[in-house]
Amino acid sequence: MENLSRLDLSDLKNHSEPYLDTIFSQANGHFGVRASNPLTPDATSGTLVNGFYETNPITYGESAVGYAKNHQTIANLPDLRVIKVKTAGEKIFTRSNLIDSSLDFDTGVLNQTYQLSTDDNLTVKLVLTTIIAQKDQNLFGLNYEFSAGSYDGAIKVSKPLHLNINLDNSNDPRKARQINDLQTQLIHHTDCQKDISIRAQHSKLSLTMALEAVQGSLQDWELNLSNGPAVASYLAKVSNVTGFTNQSQMLFDHQTFQFVLNDAKEYWQEVWNNSRISIDGDAELTQAIRYNIFQLNQSAGRNGRTNIAAKGLSGTGYEGHYFWDTEMYLLPYFTYTNPKVAEKLLDFRYNTLDMARKQARTLGVSKGALFPWRTINGEEASAYYPAGTAQYHIDGDIAYAVNRYYEATCNTKWLVDKGYELILETARFWAEFGHYREVDGHQRFEFFGVTGPNE
């Protein structure tokens, strides 16, 4: 463990592909890319966009007042890492073996080394370097450096952009339901750029994803390995999430891989200036805490319309829902190190306040607001009422987070504009929904039918 601000493959005991895809994932609060095998992606490979989800009606054997109406599920979008490689003689490299992996917390750069093989065991080496921009949150850079193995001739490289057709049929409740009805449309295609729009039919959300070959082309670009390593460099863009609109071609503005790298370096330098931690005498724990801080900063929505999903942007677990964990466990870190992000995370609650008021009315309360246990869009998405709507403590978690944020920042303007209303509306709900009951000669304020502390 030479560098405590880096995670290497040798630092990990579990080398299963799904685990490594998650651990080495990259994100910037807007979108995340799993560190999947670029040659042989599986059902969990892909791109996750914060706030891009699909809805479907929840089917109950017998429904009741307060039950959530619709599932909300984050969508697994095209894998930006996937690549196709073949020899000049059209022999396809069908297997890819991960040799090494290294994620640098100071820069956000992920370097991975693979050995690619054909069915008759011709091999080449691939070093894949990826970086996700943090300030220009739509941009992702990829460098594929090929060098000779047992094969040292010309290769042809193609960079596709399409939805993953593999589906994970697991019954694990922590894994997201599969979405197989997203609609895609090709909106621009040249030798060096491809743009597709993606629409979620029920949630009425759309976005655009684009690829650009920095040099050469996206299809059958020939590289000669006989004179040493050769590089194929690409940029990808993921647009902001919108309603159904006519999508247009995305502009890359002559950006380069170096531009993305400089963007990321600048952001992470600011993060570590405020957050770097060292624990004397415990290098392993120091590395672990720095990794967690790194993932926290990768995962947090920064636009006031998104939050922190249960798995961040590393995977689709728990359907990409936002929980109370943000306010209690995650937001305090930002409150004390990056209050601008903390404010945006609280803005998400403020911007969904009307939905919380509506949920309170559903429970027969004329005043106040009840925030959801699980959500992406602000509506309750838990299909199990006792572990969802009945968790009334959510309101207290949010009020607590508002108070902690104000005590740390003294941001009176935000408190007056938004925070006070959050506290007032959550207090109104508790006051009207709860009841006083005499216990041992004293009046005690209680909720009836509330989820217990074991949940």
TrEMBL record:
Q: Mention one GO molecular function.
A: carbohydrate binding
Q: Which GO terms describe its biological process?
A: carbohydrate metabolic process
Q: Which domain of life is it from?
A: Bacteria
Q: Where is the Glycoside hydrolase family 65 N-terminal domain?
A: 18-213
Question: Which SUPFAM superfamilies does the protein's record reference?
Answer: Galactose mutarotase-like, Six-hairpin glycosidases
Q: Which Pfam families match?
A: Glyco_hydro_65m, Glyco_hydro_65N
Residue intervals of the Glycoside hydrolase family 65 central catalytic domain: 290-455
What PANTHER family does the entry give? GLYCOSYL HYDROLASE-RELATED, PROTEIN-GLUCOSYLGALACTOSYLHYDROXYLYSINE GLUCOSIDASE
Specify the protein name. Answer: Maltose phosphorylase
